[in-house]
Amino acid sequence: MGSGASTARQNSRMDRRQLLALAGALTASVGARAAASTAVAAPASPGSVAEGADAFARLRRGGVVLAMRHARAPGTFDPPGFKLGECATQRNLSEEGRQQARALGQRLKAAGLVPTQVRSSPWCRCMDTATLAFGRSEAWPALGSPEGVDAATYARSLETLRRSVAQAAQRPGEFEVWVTHMFVLSALVGLDTASAEGLLLGWDDGGKVVVVGRIEASR
User: What is residue 161's three-state secondary structure?
Assistant: First the structure.
């Protein structure tokens, strides 16, 4: 392959500086394109977002996705040259993060809340969060970090996630768990999340993804 093609491919991928501005820029561009089909991500109004015991009750009613950021993993980006299949090359959970994941799973289990499916970004810190919290995890590329991914592919992943929320909304009494990254959640619903914090995602009558609840990380 010629150097020109290689340079073009490299330039099409998002670098770390671009990731810092990703959430706002990508949400705006994808949102504008999706507006015509009324599938624009939007947070619910503050008064309609369930928290604490109310969030657990909303989860029990089902028809939602519990989308959470992975537990604490010190740092911001993966080391240069990281490889997806090799956890030792990635940014991983700290012991505090592992405890956060276990504690969240214990809280849900104590409340009798069992997800029908647990999906995760293929990154090790996400897979480990899911496994420690729920005892299982299914890698799903659509939840993966945008680092090193071209913008068009990432936009398609967000559309896949939106469609999946719409499908989950048709299943009352059930919920599924997604474990992903801060950038993905921010691009999807326009909100910041703390490590191991979960957002309850629903689908409103206008055909939008909405945040209907928040579950704080265990302390």
Answer: helix
